[in-house]
Amino acid sequence: MQVRAKSDSETPKSPRGRPRDPNLVQQRKEQILKVTTHHFARFGYQDTDLQVIADELEIGKGTIYRYFPNKEALFRAALDRGLASLRDLIDQKIPPGSDPLAGFASAIEAYLRFFREQPELVELFLIERAVFPGRTKPAYFIQREQDSGRWNEVFRHLVRQGRVRPGNTDGVLNAIGDLLYGTMFANHLAGRNESPHEQARDILDLVFHGILGPDAREEFPEAHKDARRKTGKKR
User: Fold this and answer.
1) Residue at 12 is within a domain
2) Any idea which of 6-10, 79-83, 187-191, 214-218 has the lowest mean pLDDT?
3) Which of 17-21, 134-138, 176-180 has the highest mean pLDDT?
4) Which residue, of 87, 89, 104, 213, is most buried by count of CB atoms within 10 Å of its CB?
5) Does 188 share its domain with 140?
6) In the listed set 5, 38, 68, which residue is the last one of a domain according to the structure?
7) Is residue 9 part of a domain?
8) Structural domain for 33, as ranges
9) Are 40 and 123 in contact (CB under 8 A)?
10) Which pLDDT score, from 0 to 100, does residue 219 have?
């Protein structure tokens, strides 16, 4: 008796009238994206072979295309998956009702720890810029802009409490965000193995206290002029 191999066009069918289990669909997509992230990070975009991914997952190549219409869509879904994981982790560090300043500090350490444990996502950032240079904005910054309103509200609340000085909230948040972004890339590209806790401590010390002592602040008054004007304080 001859057994016909199942083709890529065939899919397991649910009983008539019963919808596909969304949990099973999500599990399959997660399996594909997990393996895909590893392959893109290791081999690059051009040299990632979807047939190799399918073989590793023991599925037909057509199964991948049922979930993702093309290679670029698969790559972007892998990026989105990684960024969603980062956002979920940050959300866990700032539960509703928690102290916003302590939550902010926890979020910085969580950010650094996440990228230390997920270096493949950093590689995907580099690939995105190299392979799709014409794109107006990388996925990382799209999500950062989407999250900016939330962080602005956190800082406005801290200003109202008198725990953060009034000023250009957007500028401050962009500076902190750029500092973290640069640290993430520097750690990855330089192969640094520093403790996320210690790095977060140093960044928080810089953000919260600055580096200038009282005498040096008198030497560089422009750095503090705007803050003194807005708070009405004089030295």
Assistant:
1) no
2) 6-10
3) 176-180
4) 104
5) yes
6) 68
7) no
8) 19-68
9) yes
10) 80
- For residues 204-216, average pLDDT: 90
**Do you know the residue count of the chain?**
235
SS3 of the chain: the string is CCCCCCCCCCCCCCCCCCCCCHHHHHHHHHHHHHHHHHHHHHHCCCCCCHHHHHHHHCCCHHHHHHHCCCHHHHHHHHHHHHHHHHHHHHHHHCCCCCCHHHHHHHHHHHHHHHHHHCHHHHHHHHHHHHHCCCCCCCHHHHHHHHHHHHHHHHHHHHHHCCCCCCCCHHHHHHHHHHHHHHHHHHHHHHCCCCCHHHHHHHHHHHHHHCCCCHHHHHHCCHHHHHHHHHHCCCC
Q: In this model, does residue 125 exceed pLDDT 80? A: yes
Hey, what's the torsion of the CAs at 190, 193, 198, 202, to 10 degrees? 0
Residue with token string 């997920």: 118
Residue type, 74: L
Number of Cβ within a 10 Å radius of residue 16: 5
Residue 139 confidence (pLDDT): 95
Residues 6+ apart with CB under 8 A from 31: 57
CATH number at residue 62: 1.10.10.60
Q: Are residues 55 and 156 in the same domain?
A: no
Boundary residue ending a domain (37, 68, 99): 68
pLDDT band at 167 (very low <50, low <70, confident <90, very high): confident
- Token code pair at residue 1: 């008796």
Q: Considering the domain boundaries, does residue 5 fall inside one?
A: no
